[in-house]
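[Discussion] Sanity-checking designs against the backbone

I'm trying to build intuition for which residues belong where. Below is a C-alpha cell string of 304 positions. I'd appreciate it if someone posts a full sequence so I can compare it with mine line by line.
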C-alpha cells in the first residue's frame, strides 16, 4: 500500500503496528530501524516518518499506546491548559492496566476523572493536572511556581487544588504543604519575601494591598507595604520587563510612588532567593530611612 494511503489511515502520521499489518505491511518494525523511513514511538506504535515528532504526535502516540478511555494529565495537561509546567514526560490515566515506558507514564485511575476536549485531546481539569504534575516534581519551588501560576491565571482555585489533593492523597504531600505555606502569597518570590520579613522582624507588612494618596487617587499595589513608615517593597522579575509596555508601566509606577513621597525597595526574585541576608539588610536600612522622614499622607484602600 502506498504511503499516502497509510497516512490517511493514521492520526497525524501515528498508527498502530496491528493496523499496519492489517493494511498489508507484514513487518512494520523493519522500517523503523536506524536510517529507516519510520520510527517506533512506543510498543506497538509507529510514526510514519523519521524526523522529530511534534508535541501533538507525541501525545497522539501516547494515547494510542494507553488505549481506549485514556486521558491526559500531569505536566502535558497543564501545558494544554496554558500553564508553565516542568517535566517532559507524558502522563496519562487509564481505566485498565497498561504499562508505560520511557517518557510515558501510565497510571490506572478508579474512578476515572472527567475530561474535556482541549485541541482535540481528552484532558483532565486544570486542578487535577496540576496536582498530578506536582506529584512527579522533585522541587518544592517548582511545585509552588506551578500552583501559584494556576491560581493567578484563574485556571483553578486553592479550594479545587486542595480537594484534588484530598481525593488523590498518594504522592500529594508536596501539594498540601505548598498550599499551606503559600497561603495568600501570589508567587514563589512572595513566599520567600514573607519568610524574610518574618526573619528580620520588621513591623508586619501588608501584602498586595492598594495604596491611595490623600485625594483618593490610587498610587500602586506593592507586593509588601510597611504602613507604619510608608515603605513599599516591589519584587520585580526581569521577565516582566522584556516588553516596552511592561517597562513603561514600571517607570510610571515608580514615578507615582515618588510623587506621593513613598520610598520603594525593588528586589529581583533571584537576589531574594540567593542573597536573602543582603536583601534583609537593605530592607531594614530603607525602613530606617522611611521612619526618619515625615510619613506621606497615603493610606490603604479597598478596591471594589
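Best answer:
Here's mine. Compare freely.
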Amino acid at each position: 500500500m502506498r504511503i499516502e494511503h497509510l497516512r490517511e489511515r493514521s492520526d497525524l502520521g501515528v498508527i498502530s503496528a496491528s493496523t499496519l499489518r492489517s493494511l498489508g505491511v507484514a513487518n512494520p518494525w523493519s522500517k523503523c530501524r536506524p536510517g529507516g523511513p519510520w520510527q517506533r514511538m512506543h510498543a506497538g506504535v509507529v510514526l510514519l516518518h523519521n524526523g522529530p515528532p511534534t508535541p501533538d504526535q507525541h501525545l497522539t502516540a501516547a494515547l494510542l499506546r494507553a488505549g481506549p478511555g485514556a486521558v491526559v494529565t500531569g505536566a502535558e495537561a497543564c501545558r494544554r491548559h496554558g500553564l508553565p509546567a516542568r517535566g517532559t514526560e507524558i502522563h496519562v490515566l487509564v481505566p485498565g492496566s497498561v504499562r508505560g515506558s520511557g517518557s510515558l507514564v501510565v497510571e490506572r485511575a478508579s474512578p476515572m476523572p472527567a475530561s474535556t476536549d482541549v485541541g482535540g485531546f481528552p484532558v483532565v481539569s486544570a486542578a487535577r493536572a496540576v496536582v498530578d504534575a506536582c506529584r512527579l516534581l522533585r522541587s518544592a519551588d517548582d511545585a509552588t511556581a506551578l500552583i501559584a501560576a494556576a491560581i493567578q491565571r484563574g485556571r483553578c482555585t486553592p479550594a479545587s487544588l486542595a480537594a484534588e489533593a484530598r481525593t488523590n492523597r498518594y504522592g500529594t504531600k508536596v501539594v498540601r504543604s505548598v498550599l499551606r505555606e503559600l497561603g495568600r502569597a501570589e508567587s514563589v518570590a512572595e513566599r520567600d519575601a514573607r519568610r524574610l520579613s518574618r526573619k528580620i522582624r520588621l513591623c508586619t507588612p501588608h501584602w498586595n494591598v492598594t495604596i491611595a494618596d490623600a485625594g483618593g487617587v490610587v498610587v500602586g499595589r506593592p507586593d509588601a507595604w510597611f504602613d507604619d513608615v510608608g515603605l513599599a517593597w516591589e519584587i520585580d522579575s526581569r521577565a516582566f520587563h522584556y516588553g516596552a509596555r511592561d517597562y513603561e508601566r514600571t517607570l510610571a509606577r515608580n514615578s507615582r510612588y515618588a510623587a506621593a513621597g513613598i520610598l520603594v525597595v525593588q528586589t529581583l526574585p533571584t537576589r531574594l532567593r540567593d542573597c536573602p541576608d543582603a536583601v534583609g539588610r537593605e530592607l531594614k536600612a530603607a525602613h530606617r530611612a522611611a521612619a526618619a522622614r515625615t510619613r506621606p499622607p497615603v493610606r490603604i484602600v479597598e478596591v471594589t
